[in-house]
Predict the structure.
Amino acid sequence: PAVDDPDVATRGWTLTPHRAIVAKSLRWAAVLLALFILVYGGLNWITARRTDTLGLWFDWELAIPFVPAMVWAYASIFVSFFLPMFALDARGIEALCRRLALATVISGACFVLFPSRLGFARLDIVAGYEQIFEFIHALDLPHNLAPSLHVSWSLILLLTLASISGWRLRMAFVLWLALLIASVLLVHQHHVLDVAGGILVALVTRIAIRPDGQGLSHAGSR
């Protein structure tokens, strides 16, 4: 095959990704955006009209402090969407995006089976952070909570990027991931069970989709 064939390219960080990798990433981005709007947006609209929502939280969770500055960690997931094309080959992009799609579908099924509501009272205005919270509250209605798609997507994205990085950058991705997971609680967007569910969904996608993007993974695959 040609030296510049994206299907045989070595994974690793670059500032000049192959045109085919960029094109593949953008095609998948369009698919994932459409799937997210259909599943997450559609089920948020439906759940907001249901009367059988569940309170999936422990009483002690309601004492978790609200830390508005953590909204920047929460919103940093949007930055991570642009990074894979600078690090992964075509097979890596395929595996990553299939995992994100599968996580969305699994989560959507859970949203239907376990329609939940948020236990925290949302503030109408968060002083100093008005615009970012207005955006997040408009995007993330207080439903579609368990499992947390924010957590599962963060895990899938950042652990994939960490896996092909040197140890310093890997530690940075792990720290970023820890902040992202903590942020969903500290900005009162999710509860502990939501986080646990998001972690489980990410694990299921890792088992189900092999690193080359094909079929089912098997025990011992890396």
Remarks:
- The two ends are 25 Å apart (CA to CA).
- Residues 1-6, 217-222 have pLDDT under 50 and may be disordered.
